[in-house]
Amino acid sequence: MSEQTRSDTLSATPRDEGTPWPTSVATADVREAPRPTVRTAAAAPGDIGRRIAARREELGLTREDTAARAGTAAGYLRYLEEQSTARPGTSVLIRLAGALDTSVAALYGGESDLPPGLGQAAGHAELIELGPEDCLVRLSTHGVGRLATDTPGGLVILPVNYSVIDGAIAFRTTPGSTIAAAVGSNVAFQVDHVDEALSQGWSVLVQGSARAVTDPDVRRRFDALAHSRPWAGGEARDLWVRVEQDRISGRRIAVR
Fold it and tell me: What pTM was estimated for this model as a whole?
C-alpha cells in the first residue's frame, strides 16, 4: 500500500467508531470507543449490523444517505452491516440511532422483547380516519398482521405473515390449526405501524370471511408471489387462507 493510499484510507475511517476496520487499515491512530452498557442477550455479534441495515432499508435510505446523516463514512457503515465481528462504539451508535430515527437500545436489541409504543404521547396529536384507498396502500404487499377469530374456547387473536395477492389478504397455516379452523367463518384482520420516535402511527382493520384456497393453479400462483415463508417455519404450513373483504377501515395518529 502506498503512503498516499494509506493516508486516504485512514482519513476515511471515522475516529471513535468502536472496533476499527480490518487489520489492514487498523493503526494506533484509530481509537476504540467504549461500548454501550446495554444488557441484552440479543446483542450477539452481527445482530447490530443487521438491525442497522434493516432500519435503513425500512426508511428507504441508502448507505450514503445514512452515513451523511450520521457524519460517518459510507465504507465504514458497509463494514458495520456486513462484518459479523463489527462492534461500533458509543458515539457512532448514538449518531446512527439519530440518523435512523431510533434508539441505541433498539439497535442493540434491548427493545426486541418489549411491545411497541413505550414512548410518551405527543403534545398535539390528532386521530384521523383513513379512507379505503389509503388503507389498501398501508396494507402494502406483505407484512405481519393479526387474525381475530372465534373458537369454542373463546375469541383468539394470532399473528400471521401475510401477503396481498390479487387484492386479497392471504397467508399460510397448518391444516388442523386454530387459524385453519377459522375457514368458513367471519374474521377480523388487523395491521398497524408505530413510530416510536414521533409517537404516532396507524392501524387498518379488515372484516370479512376466511376461505381456503383449493384451486391448484391459484395455490401455485400464491406460492410464487408470496414474499416469504411463514416466520414460524415448518413445511406443514401449506394451507392457503384468503380473507374475502366485506369492510375495511383505518385510523392514524398525526402529530401537529
Answer: 0.56
Task: Please give, one letter per residue, the 3-state secondary structure of the chain.
Answer: CCHHHHHHHHHCCCCCCCCCCCHHHCCCCCCCCCCCCCCCCCCCCCHHHHHHHHHHHHCCCCHHHHHHHHCCCHHHHHHHHHCCCCCCCHHHHHHHHHHCCCCHHHHHCCCCCCCCCCCCCCCCEEEEEECHHHHHHHHCCEEEEEEEEEECCEEEEEEEEEEEECCEEEEEECCCCCCHHHCCCEEEEEEEEEECCCCEEEEEEEEEEEEECCCHHHHHHHHHHCCCCCCCCCCCCCEEEEEEEEEEEEEEEEEC
Please indicate whether residue 188 or residue 33 has the higher confidence score (pLDDT).
Answer: 188
Whether the pLDDT of residue 28 is over 80: the answer is no
- The pLDDT score that the predictor gives to residue 41 is 37
Share the mean pLDDT of the chain: 77
Distance CA 14, CA 25 (A): 12
CA dist., res. 91 & res. 231, Å (int): 34
